[in-house]
Amino acid sequence: xxxxxxxxxxxxxxxxxxxxxxxxxxxxxxxxxxxxxxxxxxxxxxxxxxxxxxxxxxxxxxxxxxxxxxxxxxxxxxxxxxxxxxxxxxxxxxxxxxxxxxxxxxxxxxxxxxxxxxxxxxxxxxxxxxxxxxxxxxxxxxxxxxxxxxxxxxxxxxxxxxxxxxxxxxxxxxxxxxxxxxxxxxxxxxxxxxxxxxxxxxxxxxxxxxxxxxxxxxxxxxxxxxxxxxxxxxxxxxxxxxxxxxxxxxxxxxxxxxxxxxxxxxxxxxxxxxxxxxxxxxxxxxxxxxxxxxxxxxxxxxxxxxxxxxxxxxxxxxxxxxxxxxxxxxxxxxxxxxxxxxxxxxxxxxxxxxxxxxxxxxxxxxxxxxxxxxxxxxxxxxxxxxxxxxxxxxxxxxxxxxxxxxxxxxxxxxxxxxxxxxxxxxxxxxxxxxxxxxxxxxxxxxxxxxxxxxxxxxxxxxxxxxxxxxxxxxxxxxxxxxxxxxxxxxxxxxxxxxxxxxxxxxxxxxxxxxxxxxxxxxxxxxxxxxxxxxxxxxxxxxxxxxxxxxxxxxxxxxxxxxxxxxxxxxxxxxxxxxxxxxxxxxxxxxxxxxx
Length: 595
What we know:
Elements: H1 3-7, H2 17-27, H3 29-62, H4 70-73, H5 84-102, H6 110-116, H7 123-138, H8 146-163, H9 168-187, H10 190-202, H11 207-226, H12 247-277, H13 285-299, H14 308-315, H15 321-340, H16 348-369, H17 376-391, H18 395-406, H19 410-429, H20 434-441, H21 453-457, H22 460-463, E1 470-472, H23 477-483, E2 491-495, E3 501-506, H24 507-510, H25 541-551, E4 555-559, E5 567-572, H26 573-591
Parallel strand pairs: 1-2
Antiparallel strand pairs: 2-3, 4-5
């Protein structure tokens, strides 16, 4: 039987459903929403599975109850459990040793994937990071699980997007859906998850991304609730109507959180640099860092883990001035040592815990200066969001987090003012969030998840012409006139006897009045221009335009590399600018929902 006929038989036709799915998702917004809903469902199970595995590790290593959180139950831990971070460091060192030999490329996270790689994430790398994060958190390092949540959820989303052969913009959206559903499931907060994706993973809000991201966040939340996972809620009591006088202390708290957030990010960098410069081998650095965290936990056991349980515990009780300062210092140092020494994890949960402590500290200080109607719990919520936005970024994300955790709308105005003050101060004085700061240290020019990867993908190799006319530099001038009459071409590339690029000859200039006497003796070397100006195939459009500006040329030769200098093409400035403008216009239409 003919294969075309066979594939349309009723039974075999079922095997080609994926082709129909690809067509539906690529051509219909409804199809992308359905894919986002599937991603939301998967993400909810990912969050539940990772949380449960982490809890099992805490029960086994620290001997806590099934319903206890490590940071809240740490005060009753046996002293022997405090060596657990060092044991986790030994395991992390072993993983670092293995990866250094068999997996040398860095693991790409969702922000970098969407900024540079069009949403392409390795699912294998995602599982590796999840394993590292679970060991780090499970053995008590002062890091959170949000990195594992978003990484694996976005990894599955990217894998689904590749199976559906999605376009670049849709792939980025689907990766954002995975992160949105993960955060929404972790905090039982769909608005927080959606705006986390818009502000931190996709890098922009648009009509085209609204429906799939929100659907994924809602599905993730609903599935989490149906699984009976514990919700993260904060009870701040009843709040009276917000007055004008309440905004000043909220803004001051936001600025205070911004300053302390910058200190923490610098502290992490300092620990990393110190670890690299020390005599301690890289595979032993996590063990040393874990031992230091264990020593800190002897005096301040709440530093263990992400701080999720300690946040609930400390917001509802009254703490002394010195106790709060001690907790802020020890948690900041423990988190910096954990991440700086090689443990994997995020600072989302830790920043919420530290922000709540800073808010309570501010309430004590401000209470001595000026009476206020706001309770310490309210300041804790404001500080929680303000400090988190300084570290993580996303003003609206953290504002909605405060709203969804407290269920109190009046506080949202105070939180919004504080997070804007914090965000603006960090952006103007420091310029990075924690994630983008680490990219900066690696040499990447990423300040957000805004898609700049298309610029890098728009390379000289993709834009250049391959039909290049060349001439040997030793060619006689009269013969040159015969081979290249006026009008035959605009530019001729001169090469030596080995084929190396030596310069460019402009044909209109050759036939200009200064070279009108064609019978005179001459040398092609007198006609050469742009001897040291050329393009390489891996350069992107932005770099090419910069090279055109510096050389003041309308076109340049493309050579294979700087050693061999073999001519492989020609690229004009006008064509580069046209292609660049076309891509910019396409991105604009994508944001407007026209594509």
